[in-house]
Amino acid sequence: MTALGFIGGMSPGSMILIILVIVLFFGAKRIPELARGLGRGIREFKDATKEIQNDLEDGLKDDKKKKD
């Protein structure tokens, strides 16, 4: 199940209502700023996970070299 899997079960009317509430709550000018911030946060998270994965893979390669 994906993180946004619940969207598939929503009706179009519900989605429109949610979008309207978001626009009213944050204002039309703030939504692009929020989206950019969210995009940056997701990108930083992905970069950090890739860095950790690369560090782990490098550590495993070093362990194999030491055993040989």
From TrEMBL:
Biological process, per Gene Ontology: protein transport by the Tat complex
Molecular function via GO: protein transmembrane transporter activity
Predominant location category: membrane
Annotated localization: Cell inner membrane; Cell membrane
Transmembrane residue ranges: 6-26
Alphabetic keyword roster: Cell inner membrane, Cell membrane, Membrane, Protein transport, Translocation, Transmembrane, Transmembrane helix, Transport
Coiled coil: none
Protein name: Sec-independent protein translocase protein TatA
UniProt organism field: Belliella baltica (strain DSM 15883 / CIP 108006 / LMG 21964 / BA134)
